[in-house]
Specification:
Mean pLDDT: 82
Number of strands: 22
Strand content: 15-25%
Strand order of the largest sheet: 8-7-6-5-10-9
Radius of gyration: 58 Å
Largest sheet: 6 strands, antiparallel
Helix content: 10-25%
Shape: elongated
Distance between the termini: 183 Å
């Protein structure tokens, strides 16, 4: 027993260690199999036809235990056979790399276009609950940036255009951005919390995605905005084609208006009066209006439009017996007949909402229209009292201008009498602009009985833009008279017209260039001046501007004065 134990301990190989499943291969976690009794070594030779041959590999281990080994499959063996040249001769030389092209060059101006839409909730509106807004998503391949634009729609009332500027849009909270591989038809994409549903793309985008192996979904039909559909014009259908063409009437009769002068004589009533009106009939839509001819201080309220432009019925009270006129107004369904151009004739009376209007004249266009369409040739106007310039309370008194009191000018006094609020006198703007900056110079002396005024000389300036005259006195040394402005610029009335008092002329005549001749005497506010000389441009100005309106005596005096100055200058040159 001892020998067998000794032989087992020293003559036999050590027993294999057993490892418990689930425990690490560490000391203390393994033990020997106590039931094992075979420890022989398998033979390494085999005999065939009496000859010993070595085995390729042992099949069993010590004690007949199976030896675990890796058995190569046929595919692995074939792969080793193919790699035999590589194992023998080494790796082949790699092919030279292709020329590097950066992304901003390879994908320059290459953009993917997707059509999408999103719904916008509308709060506090009874007409719509949401809006469908269509957008375009542009994906730029060169830098993977995205921009979103909204095509503008006319009369939408929404600020449209660029919705999201071109940039890389974040996809998630981990820092990822949207890539073209993430986009496809029929899917929802979220940009900054706004959800867009992609419905379609262009042909180039679809071809590019398919070339990259992306299966493009079928395109979808985008929904329509329900509010836009309600605002779309209705498609009317006519059972029978009407001969009346409104479009043709608009194209041929636009801006063509019949104009009649009418009078409403209401003097039979208390506080009534004969009031004059103008009736306009618009041929483009068969509407008419009645406007009053207003005069200043007539005593009536300033409401010139008696009846606004509309279709006026000939008899607005001719309605059905059961029509509730107390609660409802008559519409086009209840009105039987409206006014037409055939209802207007010179000398006839028409009733407009119960008021009688007598037509007494019309304009030339109206006459031509009736000659062409109604064969009417009698347009003799009626003898009607013209519109009165007085109100009912004037008592037949005419307006008179009081005499001038000496303060201000005559024009100021007249304007203060014609208007309740004083206004500046009106001027001829065209004459003022054409002759602005022009003036004529004359040399004059003062006719006086005082000997000290004999040598005084004055320069008379005439301004043709408003017929005003200014007089200056050049200073003379040792004369004892201070020169300067003698008369400021103003209009000077002619001699013999009273300035103050009951005999004042309401429309006086003023001096003009036609009255200022060489040797002529002009009276300027009780001062008499005799014209001695004139500037060289005066004769040319009078001939070109006034022409035949200037008396021949004035032109002759100016011509003699010019000849005298030329002869004098010639004598001075000869001396």
């Amino acid at each position: 027993m001892a020998s067998s134990t000794a032989g087992a301990g020293f003559g036999q190989p050590p027993e294999p260690l057993l490892q418990t499943a689930g425990l690490p291969f560490l000391p203390g976690n393994t033990f020997r199999d106590p039931t094992k009794t075979r420890y022989h070594v398998d033979q390494t030779l085999s005999y065939r036809n009496g000859y010993a041959k070595p085995k390729v590999r042992p099949n069993c281990g010590i004690g007949g235990d199976e030896i675990p080994f890796n058995q190569l499959t046929q595919s692995e063996l074939d792969e080793l056979a193919r790699l035999r040249p590589t194992l023998t001769y080494g790796e082949t030389k790699p092919a030279p790399p292709v020329t590097f092209v950066p992304a901003h060059v390879a994908f320059d101006k290459k953009v993917l276009l997707f059509h999408a839409y999103f719904q916008q909730t509308v709060h506090e509106s009874a007409l719509e609950h949401y809006r469908v807004r269509h957008v375009r998503i542009y994906y730029y391949l060169e830098d993977d940036s995205i921009s979103v634009t909204e095509p503008p729609i006319e009369n939408s009332g929404i600020v449209q255009g660029k919705f999201i500027k071109r940039q890389k849009l974040p996809k998630d909270d981990q820092g990822g951005t949207w890539h073209w591989t993430d986009l496809n038809l029929g899917m929802d994409v979220t940009f900054y919390g706004k959800v867009f549903h992609v419905v379609d793309c262009d042909h180039w985008t679809k071809a590019y995605l398919e070339s990259e192996g992306v299966v493009v979904n079928n395109c979808e039909q985008p929904p329509q905005d329900p509010y836009i559909q309600t605002r779309a014009p209705l498609q009317y259908s006519h059972i029978t084609q009407s001969d009346f063409d409104k479009l043709r009437q608009f194209m041929t009769m636009d801006r063509k208006v019949l104009r009649f002068h009418a009078v409403w004589d209401d003097r039979g009533e208390m506080f009534g009066d004969a009031r004059h009106f103008i009736i306009h009939y618009y041929l483009v839509d068969d509407t008419m209006e009645v406007r009053e001819i207003r005069k200043q201080n007539d005593g009536y309220d300033p409401f010139p439009c008696l009846i606004g432009r509309s279709k006026i019925p000939k008899n607005p009270f001719d309605l059905e017996r059961d029509f509730p006129t107390i609660t409802l107004e008559a519409t086009n369904h209840e009105i039987k007949e409206y006014f037409t151009p055939g209802d207007f004739r010179i000398g006839e009376t028409i009733r407009v909402f119960g008021r009688p209007f007598l037509l007494y004249s019309c304009d030339e266009f109206t006459k031509d229209y009736y000659r062409k369409h109604f064969r009417v040739t009698d347009f003799e106007p009626l003898n009607v009292e013209p519109p009165s310039t007085r109100g009912p309370s004037t008592g037949g008194l005419s307006q008179t201008i009081p005499p001038h009191d000496g303060f201000g000018s005559l024009d100021d006094t007249r304007e203060n009498c014609l208007h309740l609020i004083p206004q500046a006198p009106k001027t001829d703007v065209v004459k003022f602009l054409e002759r602005d900056g022009q003036f004529l110079c004359y040399l004059a002396r003062l006719e006086s009985r005082h000997p000290e005024d004999e040598n005084r000389r004055f320069i008379v300036y005439y301004y043709p833009n408003n017929d005003t005259i200014a007089i200056d006195e050049p200073p003379q040394r040792n004369s004892g008279i201070i020169g300067g402005k003698f008369l400021r610029r103003t209009r000077v009335p002619k001699k013999g017209q009273p300035l103050v008092g009951a005999g004042i002329v309401n429309h006086p005549e003023y001096y003009t260039a036609a009255d200022i001749a060489i040797g002529a005497q002009i009276e300027v506010f009780k001062h008499r001046f005799i014209i001695l000389d004139a500037a060289g441009c005066v004769l040319d100005f009078v001939r070109t501007v006034w022409g035949d309106a200037v008396p021949e005596e004035t032109i002759a005096s100016l011509e003699v004065n010019e000849e005298r100055k030329m002869s004098k200058a010639k004598r001075d040159d000869d001396e």
